[in-house]
Amino acid sequence: MKNLLFTLFILSLTIPTIKAQDVPNPITTAAPFLLITPDARAGGMGDVGVATSPDANSLHHNPAKIAFMNSQYKIGVIYTPWLRELTNDVFLGGFTVANRLNERSAWGVSLKYFNLGEIQLTDDFGGDQGVEKLNEFSLAGTYALKLNETFSMGVGMRFIRSDLGIEISNTVLNPVNTFSVDISGYYQSEEQNYGDFNGKWRGGFNLSNIGPKVSYTDEADNENFIPTNLKLGGGFDFILDDYNKIAATLEFTKLLVPTPPLRDPITGEITEGQDDNVGFFKGMFQSFGDAPGGFSEEMKEFTWALGVEYTYDNAFAVRTGYFNENDLKGGRKYFTLGAGFKFKSSNIDISYLFNSSDVNNPLENTLRFSLAFDFGDLYEDY
Questions:
Q1: Conformation bin of residue 204: beta by default, left when phi > 0, alpha when psi is -120 to 50
Q2: In this predicted model, which residue has the larger pLDDT, 63 or 167?
Q3: Is the C-alpha dihedral spanning 313, 316, 318, 319 positive or negative?
Q4: Are the C-beta atoms of residues 29 and 11 closer than 8 Å to each other?
Q5: What rounded mean pLDDT belongs to the chain?
Q6: CA-CA distances (angstroms) from residue 118 to 6, 36, 361?
Q7: Which helix (H) or strand (E) holds 74?
Q8: Distance from C-alpha of 356 to C-alpha of 95, rounded to nearest angstrom
Q9: What is the pLDDT of residues 115-167, one digit of tens each?
Q10: Mean pLDDT, to the nearest integer, of 81-100?
Q11: Closest C-alpha among 136, 142, 43, 41 to residue 92
């Protein structure tokens, strides 16, 4: 990375909501790294995770799941290379720690660190303007409680810091510090018999990153929404026998951020859509009905993903999945493969992404890895 132009290119690729080049109305947010799927298990299943069985990285996908953990403690470590075909110093890393306190409650903390590498800045004449180190991170804490034998809810708070501070010529980007709140829920049925096999139903939702707008500049009217996001999903576990299980999960996501309206290029007056200069709370509700193209465009703002996981004796897993985003809203489409291995109290997961659209994916042709460790007492309601 040699100049500011390349930096901005990298930042644009890290925004999951960017549209195709021929669509002049993208939805962008501050701190888009919060939406990156951090773990290889979900990465092998099309990035689904809101309704899958609990694991060490549940705090990212659906924190309410940790109340159903099968062990007293879970520790997860993640590392995700980013833009590996362009550079080798951009990555997402972090860890999670979750503790099931008793039969009903659990708490957890997670840290995500997104390193954007060192940026060599130059002026219009190629003169050296110094080196900037750009990074973002979040620190989150969650408490989850089982309201009954099949349903739990979680609440959490997150500190977010986005340090994209750049000072060159007339450009100044200040670091951003803010807080957000998460609300989540998870349903897991009792195991039931369906003839030749047993099964469990799973469902979940996660309303994440609820928080105020932020600004990277000193201009009061130049504020950005953080990526408030809604995940909804459901799945079913086909328990074939004591050793073989197949889990299928379908998930939908939507950014609860207003869609920018279409404006007259001369007067600046809104011609279609609604004014997006609103507060974050009003913007969450407005995001369901403000698209310039009406209801049909609103539906295009939902992404969907399907993931399948086969496990043998809870010791070996094979995974696959597909993720789809409408061509007018970003066009991300990709298949994923993954595998998992369990050795006593430790787990290792890997995943690989196959891009299936014309839009470049930052994880294309990249292996992702994650580690997890289980400690303490075991629970039987997993």
A1: beta
A2: 63
A3: positive
A4: no
A5: 85
A6: 11, 21, 21
A7: strand 71-81
A8: 30
A9: 887 766 656 656 666 667 788 999 999 999 999 999 999 999 999 998 876 65
A10: 85
A11: 136
